[in-house]
Amino acid sequence: MSRKTSQPVALTLMADYNRNNFINSPKNGTAMLKKIFLVCFLATALCHGSFGQGLRLGAGGFPVVAEGLATGILSDPGEREVVRTAISMFRDDMRAVTGLSPKVLASEAELSGTSIIVGTLRSPLIKKLATSGKLDTLALSGKWESYTLSQVDKPFGKPGKALVVCGSDRRGVAYGLLEISRTAGVSPWAWWADVTPERRKNVRLAGLPYLSKEPDVKFRGIFLNDEDWGLQPWAAKTFEPETGDIGPKTYAKIFELLLRSRANLIWPAMHHCTKAFYHYPKNKEVADKYGIVVGTSHCEPMLRNNVDEWKRDGKGSYNFVSNKDNVNAYWESRVEETKRYESVYTMGMRGLHDGHMSGAKGDSDGARILNEVISSQRSLLSKHVDAEASKVPQAFIPYKEVLNIYDKGVTLPEDITLMWCDDNYGYLRRVSNDAERKRSGGAGVYYHLSYWGTPHDYLWLSSTAPSVLWYEMRRAYDNDVRNIWVFNVGDIKPAEYNMSFALDLAYDISVANAGDIYGHMRQWNADMFGQENADELTAVMKEYYRLAFIRRPEFMGWNRVEPKTPVKDTGFNFFEAGDEAESRLAEYGSLRARVEALKKKVPALRQDAFYQLVEYPVVAAGLMNRKMVYAHKARFYAKQGLPVANDYAGMSQQAYDSIRLMTKYYNKEMLNGKWDKMMSEAPRGLAVFRKPVLPEAVKATAAGVSVYAEGNAKAVESGASVREVTVSQSRFVELVANDGKSVKWKAKAPKWIRLEESKGEFEESKRIWLSLDQSKAKGNPEGKLTIEANGQKIILNVTGRAGRRTLSAENPYLGFAAADYAKGKGQWITVEGLGHSQKGLTPTDQQVLKNIEVVDRAPYTEYVFRSEGDLKAKVSVRCLPTHPLRYGDKLRVAIQIDGQQPEILSVRTKGRSRTWQANTFRNQATAELLTDLPAGEHTVRVYVLDPNLVLDQVMVSEESAPALYEVPVEPTYERL
To answer: Keyword Hydrolase: yes or no (predicted)?
Structure first.
């Protein structure tokens, strides 16, 4: 995928021209201006769109490999090692695509015909081409990790032509060379997800000349974390048994993936099961070989892995207050070891692992100690790395309790990058305020795509919605958080897409926008599985992320960890909104069918990739939902003494067994066990992953049929009422055999009721679905539904509503997507795929720059409906569980009913409160009030008073109505 420049190249070049003061030289002025305008003219061709434009393959393009010949490559032997590494990777790529590998040329003397010349701005080869006027390097002057691809004729006076890959620095060269590989069809995930390249006879590169953009974020990388159940056992026992750990062989593959993904930073794995990164001396050499910068996590200052290293290299307690000299010596030895390598040093101090710093008596004392710690650490950098510590990349990470300590008075040198953190579940807690934005070290983000901890882990499947990732990182970027982005990706697998999207955003923030979040995924799917499958695959994955946004698969036990609580019944209502739980399973069932249909269309060489990237996560997520929902249903019906409970128990157990079989195939059978031990279906062995909690088998005790009507969680008698049937919503009546035996049935309904089926035979249970035939319904008709089952007659009352949506005791829920407002004030942005509604709504920054204290000055949206009779109603405004982005900010909405006094409600949470935990599980924060509603038309107005608040859904419900998990948004919204 191509990337576009951050600004017009002509403007960049003119700025460079003025900065370098060429115009002050009369001798060179005219010639230089001609040169500038020539380059500016060429630059027009260099600007390119994000997808499908710019660099490409074309019949008349430069022959990288053509007519059975591979073009030779020349570089200066004095280049940094990553340049040679990239050349080796590129040669392997061309062999994989064409069967031919370009020859490495020893000198200019070997140039003939066509060639590829590779080098940085410091390369003698590049300098010679520039001096001779063959190559213009002005556009790369002073740039970070940028490159040009240009065709030159008669390089060094030799006959023929050359493709010149020129980088502003060592990684710029590597990115340029590997961009050719990517254009030829070599995915960054070729090895890590087995995306086998398609074979080609020729690779001819068109779209030249080509100028890359400068990365939008300077340091971009990943954190390998919670590796205990995937990456570490796979490396130790499958891929690198000679080391028995995540060692240099494994890191070489990880660094190759990062380099291909245009990333440049690693926080290595650091749990107890893994020896420290620097335990293996070759690890740092491999990092340098691939041009990867090494940093460490929030609890590993000065590149030290305390979990593994303090017990071996430290003396006494890890306490700066009582053991300062030994702690400093411990840090100093690592600085001495790493001074020759490119690193980002984490500053400050926490406990030995992910815990509080020892020796501090409260947050204020902690701030005082941290100031002393950082001063001491910088003296070590000045002593060993650079006399000016400000020139050494450093980061301070106010994670968890450290954020409170920072706010108590940590005096942070301005050149240290201030790295903000999310709340572990994808929502940023802070960004820089106006003063912090002026810091020379800038700001960064540490962001979770995988997490172990309270209230519950999500280590199994990667389910963070791309829309959330985009929204939060776009907010960070727009607040000048642009120096370091690190993403916790767990074991890398199965976070392949989210990792790619995150790193692509860091490289080019414009690869997605609010109205087109999934365009990036569509191109990714096209690259992986063919353009012809991209639209359907993207639709499938969008639905996968939507369902997981509503409830992650790991959260389906409705329990917590740390402290652990037992698995309990789900929050989905079986007898409201058409059976929330069954509807959810039907949606997963539809996804599975679509995946199976797609699998038949995917080429054979991509079947293994399809299993890893699509089939396993989508199908396994559905099976987890099926396991937990049917276990709940089994327990429910067992309490009623109904044998249908046994069926549900069997389906739950079958889902559990299927997950295990799928995981076994992933590890043991696919690719002859290449990924053995990489995929665990039960990370940490948590309760949600265990065998379902099922009741004892129910024995039949009586004949007959029990009847459940929607709106009733208990069996009903003849004469009961079915929940009001509306134009847009079907209702069900469920027949359950008391003895579990076969039942013959038939049903008769008024002419204005459609019956999905009117007769038949079932075993155990049967649902009869009713819907309104609007063409035959007048007003609010009433009638009888008669059901006969094995001679038993049940007569139920049915009421229809053919008019506008109305809230009543019989129809106690009305739901709206926030974006479907009747009218509003202000400018709003709708974000594709965001929220339960999939169209999260937020005011533009210009509308809510700061906290608004006068309600009628705030932007608002309105929702209109009718009520029948006098009702006590609950109005709920569902928002994303975001946080105020600046210290001291608020997070509030105001709700106004029918022009009455608005009520201001906060959705801000603090720390790890129970409210925050509930919001985390549901992925929503709720503002709610009670109101009296007389019969008639009503308006709910919702004001947004503070920045970073995203509206998702609005629900009005009758106060005593049973709780729903989801807002029942009707498919059509009639604006009154």
So the answer is: yes
